[in-house]
Amino acid sequence: EVQLVESGGGLVQPGGSLRLSCAASGFTFSTYAMSWVRQAPGRGLEWVSTISAGGSAAYYADAVKGRFTISRDSSKNTLYLQMNTLRAEDTAVYYCAKATVTTWGPRWFDPWGQGTLVTVSS
Amino acid sequence: EIVMTQSPATLSVSPGERVTLSCRASQSVSSTLGWYQQKPGQAPRLLIYGASTRATGIPPRFSGSGSGTEFTLTISSLQSEDFAVYYCQQYNDWPLTFGGGTKVEIK
C-alpha cells in the first residue's frame, strides 16, 4: 500500500523558513515524480511544485517561485519542500502527492498524504 | 495559465438523486482532466483521470465526460458518503491548476 506521511509543519513568523518532509513507502520512490499541493484554510487546492523522478527537473507556481525549493532523497524515500521568506498567504495545509505514471510531465495526483499545517503569523 | 471554473459553487441534493457537476477550462486541455473528492478534514481522493477513466476502487456511480474546454462529473445516485467537495484539475500544461470546487451538500 502506498503511504505518504508529511511532517515539519508548524507556526513560523513572516519572513521565516521551514522545511517540510514527506516520507514515502509502498512503491519505488525513485521512479515517480512527486508534488506539493496546498490548501489555505477554507479555500480550494493550489498546486505548489513538482519534481521529476530523478530530481533533475522541477516546476513551481509563480506564487512560490524563488522562495520555495523542492527536492528529494531517494536513499531515504523522502520528498522535501524548503520554504523561505514565508508570508501570511503561505498559511495552508501542505499535501504531498504522487504521480501515477513514470513518464515525466504534467500529471494528476494519486494518492495524497494527509497533509501538514503551516501557519505564518507573528 | 489555464483557468478552471467549476459550477455551481454549492449544490443541495437529496440522497438517491442524480448529480451533475461542471468544469470549464479557459482553453482546450484535450482530455487531460482529473476529478477529486475531498471530505472535511481529509486529503483529496482521485476519482477520475483522463476526463473519463475511473481511478482504482471508485464505484461505477461516478462517471466523467467531456473534452476540450467542457467537462462533467456525474454521480448517478448520490449516497450519503458522497457529500463532499469536488475539484477538477487540468494537467495539460504547467502550471497545474484546479477549479474552485463544488460543494455537494444535503438538501
Task: Give descriptors for this structure.
heterodimer; A: 122 residues; mainly beta; four-stranded antiparallel beta sheet; 11 strands; globular; B: 107 residues; seven-stranded mixed beta sheet
> Which spans of chain B have pLDDT < 50 for at least 5 consecutive residues?
none
Number of strands of chain B: 11
Q: In terms of structural class, how would the helical and strand content of chain A be classed?
A: mainly beta
Rg of chain B, Cα atoms, Å: 13 Å
Helical content of chain A (DSSP H or I, runs of 4+): under 10%
Determine the fraction of residues in helical runs of chain B and give it as a percent range. Answer: under 10%
Order of helices and strands of chain A: EEEEEEEEEEE
Would you tell me the overall average pLDDT of chain A?
96
* Sheet with the most strands, sense and barrel status of chain A: 7 strands, mixed
Low-confidence blocks of residues of chain A: none
| Number of H/I helices of chain B | 0
Outline type of chain A: globular
Separation of the first and last Cα atoms of chain A: 40 Å
Mean pLDDT reading of chain B: 97
* Basic shape of chain B: globular
Quick recap:
By secondary structure, chain A is mainly beta. Helix content of chain A is 0%, strand content 50%. The chains are: A mainly beta (122), B mainly beta (107).
